[in-house]
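Structural biology now treats backbone shape like a language. To illustrate, our science desk offers a sequence and the tokens encoding its fold:
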Amino acid sequence: MLLPEFFPFSLDIDNMTHHKTEALLKKINYIEADVEIQKQILFSIPSAQKMEMEKTISLIAARKQEIEILRQELKEIDPAEYDRILKFEDAVAEFKKIAADIPFQSIINRNVHEKCALALQNDAKVECLIKACDNNGDWTIITINGEVIQFTAAEVAEKPPKKDEF
């Protein structure tokens, strides 16, 4: 067994895990973007070109399998990050279900280096990733913690932006 004083560097397992997690997430994002491009290509292929369509569908399926393998690897090396991603995916799915039933008049999302918060009547602000207001003035948000919360117009201090303010 080597004594720690003989190691010229320190082993920072948490830092190594973070870098592996970050690398996996980048790979997943890249492949997901490629899948979206392939879907657009698929929609642009004339229906008479069945072989080309089948080739593109096979490519999409293979890329999705790659994503699943990477996700399982992420689950093994960083279960907390994997669970966090699942939570956000569930929140997005719930938000989409709500959006399918309730037409929103405005949707505002958090961008890089920009804030997104909903101002409440009690002077509190709820930080969010996305906030949407329906025609009744009621709001639906996804918080930065991955929760979907709905507020009535009476609970919210702000008004949605007018159409020409987008």
The chain has two domains: 12-77, 101-165. The chain has three helices and five strands.
